[in-house]
């Protein structure tokens, strides 16, 4: 405690300052008011009487008895089991909360909000009854104790394409790029190459797919990576002359990877059924000392395995697009075979949302003529082609022959 006039320090509150002689009685009144306000604040936060006494002593250095505390709260008109607020005031406060995130609250959380935010005195049982009256659907959903997932909506095939890259094989020099149709779940392309960070390569995959299908999607969704810039520009250019709501720049949508649901979900399925084998195979080569992650080793591994992996990817896409997806009660998109859903949308009460594209419209883009060698390095590619040609070796047809070719070329090149 300090004197506000001369700054002299006191160990306890006194009526007069020993240094300047000024009256300090107003400090006693102010201190009492501060104590009462602290007690009221802790009471409104729902603390019990003994906890309030302990907090006043431990946090504020104010020793107050339980009886004095109850007296001060009684003078302030605060009671635990009487002096309840009117039903009208409680109903209005609950109505305000139900307009926002409060519609998710159970009756215990709502009771806490009413007591601490609105300083209302109300029984929890009364809050429960009012919530059942004002928000019956919310009470029913909470009683079911089920997690409510968001539902994916799509008007039909080619309404939304989801494109993304797959980096699980990148430590071994192999990068995958894929795209899936949101309505039918048909995999539109799945390509293995030396990179999926080159915007020209991603745009080439997109243009090739559009050329093969003869249609451009109504919307294209990607993450915010720079590798998607040219593909987004091509999509917006092809949709520039259309007059629908999503024409032009609105035909492409950036978003986070976690929200790109369709392709991210499919990558999880792809790892369980396909890529885990290749990850373990290449990890075994690395653990055995035959692969160290250098540029030369990555180029050599790509040269030997890229065609085999691409063949496996094509088989994976064929099997996926012809398998049957079970109908889900929580999904708005129908179940069925992806190829049937994509090419025969009228059988499922939908329509094709894509726009027809002529090949001449795609020839103006230089990325349509993009070509990438499997090795990723032109000099190493020419050297390995020469070695294979001189040795009259056959191209590998499976992972065993590709592994043998890798080990043999690694020994020849002394890598």
Task: Give a structural overview.
The protein is of the alpha/beta class and 415 residues long. It folds into 3 domains: 1-82, no CATH class; 87-144; 160-413, Ribonuclease H-like superfamily/Ribonuclease H (Nucleotidyltransferase, domain 5), CATH 3.30.420.10. The chain contains 15 helices and 7 strands. The strands form 2 sheets. Strands 3-2-1-5-6 form a 5-stranded mixed sheet, with helices on both faces. Strand 1 (160-166) and strand 2 form a beta hairpin. Helix 4 packs across helix 6 (124-134), helix 6 (124-134) crosses helix 7 (136-144) and helix 8 packs parallel to helix 9 (229-238). The longest helix has 27 residues, at 261-287. The mean pLDDT is 85.
Known CATH architecture of the largest domain: 2-Layer Sandwich
What is the overall pLDDT average?
Answer: 85
SS-based structural class? alpha/beta
- What is the CATH homology-level superfamily of the largest domain? Ribonuclease H-like superfamily/Ribonuclease H
Roughly how many Å is the radius of gyration? Answer: 35 Å
Quote the beta fraction: 5-15%
CA distance, first residue to last residue: 79 Å
Could you estimate the helical fraction of the residues in percent?
Answer: 40-55%
Number of helices: 15
Secondary structure tally: strands: 7
List low-pLDDT spans.
none
Spatial order of the strands forming the largest sheet: 3-2-1-5-6
The major β-sheet equals: 5 strands, mixed
């Amino acid at each position: 405690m300090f004197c506000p006039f001369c700054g002299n320090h006191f160990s306890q509150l006194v009526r007069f300052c020993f240094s300047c002689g000024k009256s300090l009685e107003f400090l006693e009144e102010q201190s009492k008011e501060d104590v009462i306000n602290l007690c009221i604040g802790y009471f409104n936060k729902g603390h019990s009487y003994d906890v309030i006494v302990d907090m006043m002593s431990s946090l504020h250095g104010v020793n107050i008895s339980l009886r004095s505390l109850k007296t001060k709260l009684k003078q302030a008109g605060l009671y635990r089991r009487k002096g309840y607020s009117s039903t009208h005031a409680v109903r209005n406060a609950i109505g305000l909360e139900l307009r926002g995130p409060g519609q998710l609250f159970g009756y215990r959380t709502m009771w806490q909000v009413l007591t601490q935010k609105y300083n209302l005195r109300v029984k929890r049982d009364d809050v429960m009854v009012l919530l059942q009256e004002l928000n019956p659907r919310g009470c029913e959903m909470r009683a079911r104790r089920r997690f409510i997932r968001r539902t994916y909506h799509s008007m039909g095939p080619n309404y939304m394409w989801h494109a993304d890259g797959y980096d699980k094989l990148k430590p071994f020099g192999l990068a995958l790029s894929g795209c899936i149709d949101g309505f039918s779940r048909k995999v539109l392309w799945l390509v293995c190459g030396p990179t999926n960070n080159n915007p020209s390569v991603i745009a080439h995959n997109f243009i090739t797919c559009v050329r093969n299908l003869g249609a451009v999607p109504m919307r294209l969704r990607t993450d915010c990576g720079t590798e998607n810039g040219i593909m987004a520009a091509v999509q917006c250019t092809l949709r520039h002359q259309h007059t629908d709501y999503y024409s032009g720049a609105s035909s492409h949508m950036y978003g986070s990877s976690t929200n790109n649901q369709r392709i991210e979900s499919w990558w999880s399925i792809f790892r369980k059924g396909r890529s885990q084998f290749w990850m373990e195979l290449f990890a075994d080569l690395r653990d055995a000392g035959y692969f160290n992650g250098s540029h030369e080793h990555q180029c050599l591994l790509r040269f030997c395995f890229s065609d085999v992996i691409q063949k496996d990817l094509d088989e994976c896409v064929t099997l996926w697009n012809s398998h049957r997806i079970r109908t889900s009660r929580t999904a708005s998109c129908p179940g069925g075979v992806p190829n049937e859903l994509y090419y025969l949308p009228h059988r499922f009460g939908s329509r094709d949302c894509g726009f027809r594209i002529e090949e001449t419209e795609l020839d103006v883009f230089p990325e349509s003529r993009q070509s990438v060698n499997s090795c990723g390095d032109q000099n190493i590619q020419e050297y390995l082609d020469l070695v294979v040609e001189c040795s009259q070796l056959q191209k590998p047809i499976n992972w065993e022959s590709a592994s043998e070719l890798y080990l043999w070329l690694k020994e020849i090149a002394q890598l």
